[in-house]
Amino acid sequence: MRRFRAAAFGALLPLAACQHYAPAPLPEAALLAPAVDPAAQTAPLTVDAVVRLALRDNPDLKTARAARGIADAELIQSGILPNPSLSGAILPLISGVGIVPAWNVGLTQDVKALITYRSKRRAGRDVQGRAAADLLWQEWQVAGQARQLAVDLIGTRRQLPIVEQAFAILSARNAAMDAALRAGNTTLVLAAPTLAAVQAARASRDAVEQRELQLRHQLAALLGLEPDAPLLLAPAAELPPIDPAAIRASLVTLPQRRPDLLALRLGYAAQEESVRQAILSQFPDLVLGATGSSDSSKVVNLGPQATIGLPVFDRGQGNIAIARATRAQLRADYAARLATATGEVAAALTEIEQLGRQLAAQRADLPAVRRAADRAVAARGASAIDEAAYVSLLTARFTKEQDVMTLELAIMDRQVALQTLIGAGLPTVDLLTMTEPAP
Known about the structure:
This is TolC family protein. Belongs to the outer membrane factor (OMF) (TC 1.B.17) family. Residues 1-22 form the signal peptide. The protein has 11 helices and 4 strands; from the N terminus they run αααββααααααββαα. By secondary structure, the protein is α+β, with helices and mostly antiparallel strands. A 4-stranded antiparallel sheet has the order 1-2-3-4. β3 (286-294) and β4 (300-308) form a beta hairpin. α2 packs across α5, α9 packs antiparallel against α10 and α10 packs antiparallel against α11.
């Protein structure tokens, strides 16, 4: 009995080190800030400043960083061996010739877990590295989205004065034509072009204003702000110049710099370990230990104990096939992602070159269009041009101004996409390393 109580006490002693439950209540209200932190906005926000705020305050990134703790916990779990098992029984004497109660105690350990231990540890490190790479890739995506929204919002705000000026000038002209029409000093045929032009100018202004509001709301949501939080941005979007030749030359090192590609490589390494574990698991289940017992006549027995599984039907063939098929799928996924990443960079460079040629042509046409519009204004004052030609030349000027700004914004959009694809100005992956190869 004393031996049994001592064994039971030793088995229950580890329970004293168990962790305890503590509630973690959910927030009662949306955690949206009414404005940018004043300490972070001492001046109008540049594109880089917006990126820094997004990396710090984006709600999805906060969730992703919290989720990374799961991979850290899984790494801890991968290094823990299964607990030994303690069994025991006491058999009180009910009848017969015995003189004391019988008892038995057994202590066993699963030995098979030791065979796959090192492989599971390597897989755990791979999974942890993949989680870090996935988080870094998400940071790249958020940074790229913040950069894109900031550039688009700044560019759209630059268009607002143009469309507002066009609408104001054409509205004044339309009011004058409407007054002349009511007074009988002109005809509907002569007034129609101005009316059509002012309606088109109104639609253009409304579209730009809607776009500006939509972009402001999207950027506020990305920064964890309330939808109508004020966003004071720099008047111009400054982006670093790109070197197409250097970017094309650096494509060979893209797999070492892109977090999504690193995540796939680490996931593939973890699956390699899964294949290794499935093969090692063909070793029969083996449980070793020792057992002791005493019968009712105080005869004590003590000796080793072994339980071995007989691989008659299940030899792990199904798990091996699944692990190998999953590895083949991951290999194909990596090859496809690598091809897509390389193709996207090349496509972005080609599009930037095309847009650059188109922008140069539009800029070359702009001075002549401006001069024609100025002459039309002067000629209209001297009644030397008809209404339709005047409105056409004036509208052409504002349209050309918008076309130039639209192409400038399109080029910057491609530059932002290219920066995200190659990681320019984004957190680096130097902290992510592949695990050592298995012996």
